[in-house]
Amino acid sequence: MAVRRTGRPARGGGARVLGRTGLRAAIAAALVLAPLSLGTPPATAAVPGSGPVATDEVTPTPAVVVTQVTPTAVGVDDDVTVSALLTNTTDEPLEAAHAHLGVVRYRLSSREALRGWAAGEVTTLVPTPVADVDLDEPLAPGASRSVTFEVPASDLRLLPYPESSGVRGLVVTLADDARGQVGEGRGFLTWAPSGDADPVRLSILVPVTGPAPDPTDLPGWTTQIASETAVGGRLERIVAGTAGTRNVSWVVDPALVEQAASGTPETVAWSTALLAGAAGRDVFATDRYDPDLAALAAADVAPLADDREPPVSPEQPDDPTDDGETPADDPVGAARRAAGSWRTDLALPASGTASSQLLEAAARVGRRLVVVDDGLAGTGPTTAPGSTTVPTAAGDVTALVPDTRLDELFVAATSALDPTLPAAVASATRSHDLLLLLAELATVAEEPVATLPHLVVATDRDWSPDPTALAHVLSTLGEDRLVDLVPVSTLAGTPQAAASRDPLPVSATPVASLRPSTVALAWGRVGDIRKFAEVTPDPGLLSAGPAATTSAALSVAWGDRRPDRVRLLEAARDEVEEMLAGISVVAGSDINLISDHGNLPIRIRNDLPVSIAVGVALVPDDPRLNVLDVPQATLEPGTEQSVEVPVRAIGSGDVRVLVRLTGPDGVVVAEPYAFDVRVRAEWETVGTAVIAGLLALLVLGGVVRTIRRGRSARRTAPIRPMEDA
User: Fold this and answer.
1) Among residues of the chain, what percentage have pLDDT more than 70?
2) Does the pTM of the predicted model rise above 0.85?
3) Do residue 216 and residue 81 come from a single domain?
4) How confident is the model at residue 629 (pLDDT cuts 50, 70, 90)?
5) Judgement on whether residues 225 and 369 belong to the same structural domain of the protein
6) Which parts of 414-514 are beta strand (E)?
7) What phi, psi does 613 have (nearest 5°)?
8) Which of 630, 655, 654, 656 is nearest to 643 (CA)?
9) Is 383 found in the same domain as 334?
10) What whole-number distance in Å separates Cα of residue 347 and Cα of residue 511?
11) Which range of residues forms the domain containing residue 381?
12) Residues 133, 65 within the same domain
């Protein structure tokens, strides 16, 4: 196929876009080449963030798709290459087919004009013919063939002045000598004669969140993670496609990475690849299990933190790696250590749930960056920046506002091929979406503003890209001199110009369809078990489980699956109740106290799997009994122990005593137990007096008896010395 440079329409004026009724019909058919070009969502973006979904509807095959224009910004001395895919959409072979390239010399000065041109709504611009290509062989019905136009920039006949820079429309038409024009495709060329135009800053934020988490079924959850992290799985594609571009920022669920690191060799390999890709990158951590922030805000509760002890740093002397262990030998520890270094100041609400209520709740827990995809969209004649400051009762929040149009094009250009189209056509359509994305950014670069806006693209959680297409898009953006791809932290740290915007909703319907009172009650139970767990040497061993199950129940990934959310909340409730019943007072008989001081024996039992240290407090209902101390007791798992509590009695009477086992801060950690004490403090005094009196009487009686009986007659007379005879 030889390219003919021409200054007139070839083959009977086929390059004239307007003026023929048949051409208008061709536009209607041809401009379905990219559904985005028509202003309607593409098949590949029908569900934001997802890949194409096979349906019963078949996407019409376009006759012409403009797939690539290089360089992305054309200077006066450049050679221009325009590629297109031609498809015979007729029922007859095209025996003498040829393609024509034309360029609109007038600048598309706004994004609205750009979209109007792409959608075929602009009917007043006539392209200037640039080049023709004859196909060497006939084109059979349904067959496709690529063509490439290579022309010097001078053939475009565009003015070489800086003020003439901007996006121009391209037209590639397919015609046949016998049938006339078969179809047409529109594209874009960015004219940059000066070569020193300021680039538009662009940040890309990609969530890395997994399938619905279930801490009560870790093997089942691991199986789902393995499916998504396997080669070709959604999570594998995201990491593989973005790992090589460090300026793409990630939002990662630490619980997902940790669970992958504890799973199969394949999931461990994925977690290792993610940690390697996270080095030198902006990585923001979600709360564990990625809970629905709108549901938490509605219930006025904060996200649940990880109750476990923080991982040991490799630099610390007691780290196991000192014995020869490497991070590869401890993938879970490596995942936890890495997650500890990720930023925690960004909140990523579920799609469409951002609100003033949510922003205030995020500010209260220190998340001053919030992605807002529903509300705050710019309403002015120029493009609004990708961030804006929103005041809340808890302080200012920086809202990151993705550009909806750029989001759609980025997803369409990186998604899997549309299965309803022939592979070559689907690939060409995806390339065309990239061309549209570059044209949108180039148009923003030409807007008449003092400072170019910094824009942001944020994919959805269920985005499933094609890694090859994704890597190509990111590489193209990185090489485009009118685009400066930078991390999200650069956007967050750079003040942006004020812009008129849509209002932010006051509140939003959470994804988790649970009543706020239900959420608040579940969070209250976690608070109870956290206080209870303080009686153990490592409180996190007890509270981490219920906290994880409760947080997982609100995960965004569960979507509208309310029964699963309820099941997890009930499992967490049962776990908490079982733990709270793990410490008890062993029932005994009532006690008699017959002295004014004594010890009351209290027997306690520990059915928990960990040791405990509790205080034994007695609360009498009568001042006749005073408790002198609250002794502490330490019990090993599954043991009982008797504790002596010192008391003092004043008077006599029956006293009801309540036994309370308490934690370090005085919180009661077991069901109180009551028993009766029969206080008879005077019995000891009375008994002693009686015995003493009896003894005295006995002694006195003995003395009197002895005196009254006198000397005995049988007593021997004293012996006197014999007198002298």
Assistant:
1) 85
2) no
3) no
4) very high
5) yes
6) 455-458, 483-485
7) -135, 115
8) 630
9) yes
10) 15
11) 201-313+329-492
12) yes
